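Q: Two folds, back to back.
A: First:
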Amino acid sequence: MGSSPQRRSARFPLQPRERSRHTAREVAETYRSGDAFFAYDAGLTVLAWNEAAERLTGIPAETAIGHPCWDVLHGVSERGDVICHPGCSNARLAREGWPLSCTRMLIATPTGRKAVSITTITVLRTGEEPIVLNLIRNGFPLEPTKKAAQRLTARQVEILQFLAAGQQVKTIAGRLGISETTTRNHVAAILRRLGCHSQLEAVAEARRLELI
């Protein structure tokens, strides 16, 4: 992934009153996949959960649809850190139109924890609430975290070092002579490339990979 992505939502801002809501039936009829697939709306409510998702996870559609995605998946990282929760940063970024890298997690199933990787695509249409589409694959992606981490730029490694020292974004921006927005974009890119969901997790992962 190259330079920090530009949010589509920033280019096509929508006022809340202009947005129409989607029904579960509309989403299920519009978006289909032979792979395990689910979709949620701007409120994180699951709108679609196909048969392949049922087979892969053991979670029936009637249990998932209409419920918050975080309450269905109960996703955690390999280290046991909570990923799926009401304030999920990945969900927020997806709703705002940021492109996201594949996410690895362990989800809760009727037979215990299961390792999956989730690829996310956001559908943004003028006058409509965003729909977040997700493909679930069994197991983790082939590319190891270390290889992904090698794509960090020198600037991003520098920002990681500041984060590890406990510096706030505003302070880091001032030290580097760049805007807070640019600094936050770098932090978002770091989280995506390291497969992390918080700055603390990114620092820990960077130390594990001997990047800092």
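A: Second:
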Amino acid sequence: MVASEIDSLRQELAALRHELDDLRLNLPDAFVEGDLASDRVTFMNRVACQVFRCTPEQVATLHARDICGDGEYERAQREMREMLERGYAEGGGVYKRSGHQDLREFVMRRRDGTTFPAETQSSIMLDVTGRAHGVRTLVRDITARKEMEARLEEASVRDPLTGCFNRRHLDRKRAELEEPSAHWTCLLFDLVDFKTVNDTYGHDEGDRVLQAFAHFLSRHHRSDDILVRLGGDEFALFIRAHSHEEGQAISKRVVEAAARDSPAAFSLGTAFRQPGERVSGLLSRADQVLYASKGLSLRPKRRRPESTHGEKPGPS
């Protein structure tokens, strides 16, 4: 091969290296390279430096542990070992890439110590013999996505009218509520003559009554209690109580508060969870007590000034 051909090939190789370096540096995603033997970070592109809030000069000082959230470095190590073992097994001694998109989620740590949820996609770097020596990883900050997922999750377990939890949330909490050591008192509320309110004043006013009653209940329970709108004008409040007497005392306080400022008359049924009792059984017993109390409505002793219902049943 003549000297001119060699020079031409060298120029082509240099151009390819420049193009590759430019691609790595300017990828629109955070791009990180690391050494498998030392677990040190060897390269971050511009976006990665922005995401991890470090300078290019600081990259060489970073260990993989430095960019992982608590416990995530150990998990990443385990998953990397599994990936390598699988790749070598499939390749018969040399590493064989799976060809599948391998998306994982980790909590990553920025250089300033703050953390963020990330979606990662990694590819193994191989030497000329087919042995793994490094890893290339795309890192995407998914904070906005996680926040949206949390909002959607919260909306899925909330009653849109009153803000109370709904039956779906109750189903998800069932295992906790039915633990052998769980002690709960269930307070079951049913608004008195609520249909008359809807028929007389319209559904918009009925909605306002439900919202006001839910607000009243929310002011009279603790943060770890569970307030559920079961449907229509029926609400259930699950209160942690270690004894029947404690549950009765809590129920008494709610009744006393209702006499002062409940926005609507209601019937009340209470039941303290028996050993091994399921949520359905607890609700059923509270409902039996409520049914027995029909006609014995609990009303505020004085009319709220903003009430528009006159002498009609419902809010008073």
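Q: And?
A: Residues 15-146 form a domain with the Beta-Lactamase fold (CATH 3.30.450.20).
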